[in-house]
Structure prediction request, 714 residues.
Amino acid sequence: MKLDELAGKCGEWLLGTGPESDIVISSRVRLARNLAEFPFIRKANDSERTQISQLVHAKMDSIKSWPDLLYVDIQSLDEVDRQFLVERQLMSREMAEAKGDRAVAIDPNERFSIMVNEEDHLRLQVMCSGLDLQTAWERIDKLDDELGEKLTYAFHDTLGFLTACPTNVGTGMRVSVMMHLPALVITREIEKVFRSLQKINVAVRGLYGEGSQFMGDFYQISNQITLGRTEAELVTTVNEVVPRIIEYERRAREFLVNESEQDLHDDVSRAYGILCTAKKISSEETLHYLSKVRMGVNLGLIRSIEIETINKLFVQTQPAHLQKLRGQHLSVADRNIERASYLQSHLGPNSKSDADN
Amino acid sequence: MKLDELAGKCGEWLLGTGPESDIVISSRVRLARNLAEFPFIRKANDSERTQISQLVHAKMDSIKSWPDLLYVDIQSLDEVDRQFLVERQLMSREMAEAKGDRAVAIDPNERFSIMVNEEDHLRLQVMCSGLDLQTAWERIDKLDDELGEKLTYAFHDTLGFLTACPTNVGTGMRVSVMMHLPALVITREIEKVFRSLQKINVAVRGLYGEGSQFMGDFYQISNQITLGRTEAELVTTVNEVVPRIIEYERRAREFLVNESEQDLHDDVSRAYGILCTAKKISSEETLHYLSKVRMGVNLGLIRSIEIETINKLFVQTQPAHLQKLRGQHLSVADRNIERASYLQSHLGPNSKSDADN
Prediction:
């Protein structure tokens, strides 16, 4: 499989089929791993980075249960392709902006991806649709075992897995859940929820990390601390807190429906109308209106669209995706026009969404 | 014909069929007349007002070329019906809010209406679609002759027709044209146009008189002075200035298309989207968006709607019209909901507009 083929496809985690997927977009587990025989990335020279990448690539290719793995050399990519992989949640923004020999290995169904030579030698991640950390954890545990058989991880009997940043030492695990919380934003309760999460060491970030809280009401909820905790404990911590946030969001939605259904219906319906008719539209505006439409569909206020279509549009209307789908570089102004056109062909009465699915 | 039957119908002047009707909605001529044997309204007592109304009613009924004339006693109407006639441009706001015996006589095709006991004993008006003051003038001249045969007008050999307000003495005529000038508003040239009109004694007012300039970019252009001018001169004054304003508006539209067609297309298309999807919407917002859509249709940026449909919606989405059409009194909040529903059933892919026409 080639990178270009990914653009028109859709990762399994975006299908909107998992548990609680009206509020939880996806569950993600990532493991940080380092190779015992190499220095950490920050201390590694160019030659060592290349050796790591080549070794890891060869070992991955030898794992029979990982067929058709796409091993992407980031250095050889242009800026649009790098941004594309970030928008796709297959690698970090830091990875896109870094220098030197580095790669990302991608499962064709996007069930997992593995960054090579990011902050650690290896960053494995598994994504599942909806709230399903157990499946994500089981899958990544298996991937970790399979890869661990081929490579020698840096491991300390007392400390556990060794990582470049001390905050990851131990399990090297981060457990996170991407939540869609528009009603808590409208009712202004979101800050209160976040403050109580901080007290129990649960971190909250925007769609693409810190400072992006205005991006379509999406929030990543994840464990803050890893050292001294078992993998099961980390999964449990996040698994315990997420249902409570879901409950808050549901109550806020019920409140909005009960107190001001007409306002809410008007708001989501106009958002849909704008997405269906704008002749140019920015990414931010698109996220903003898609977020409203997504809540509207989940509340039964809009019936003509599938959640899967909206989930896909969140990703496919982003700058690099648009350029990949159109097969050409586009200026910001041209992207805004293409984005409007793309939205119109996938929403509304004459949309392509059925054909695409 | 009954008043209720008017609500679902559409006056000829709204059909959008007249000359220059992309920019000129309608042409209107009105004549002020008073009866020689009665004091002016401001000096008349209740009994005299009743006598005037009864006399005029009887005489009008005896004119054979005025069949099916609807003679409406304003005192017997509730507030919604009064407002309905104002929205319909069949009588003035002052007439609706006044007290005492008064009436309006309405031609079934709404080609003309005659207010009885407004500021003057009689106020005749004729409306035509587009820029067609000559037809309006010929029609009202004929109506005036027909009515003048039955009644004795207060007329002075030197001054001409006598009127309650000295500014109307002479011909008693006001010539006005309702123009749609959205591009001059967007390009901020409208104020300049207005200042030059003031210099040549041409008045500019909003849709419903002074201070309503934000109502959907509609402006009434009319003669300021009547004394000392003949009817033909008054028609000529307005007839000469209107084509110049049309030319300015057309140039402003061309400028917008040439300089920022994408912005303009986006703006009018979103306006259409909001009208098609809002679940509640105020009169002001409706006028604002309908105005953009009207320009969009005239510029070929929106192709699925007829100008006639939009012209009708301007009138039919107003508060009293909505209530008449729904057959019940509605609160402001309920009207906003009904208005959105009405717009949706007349715009967009599944609209009723074809069936209605």
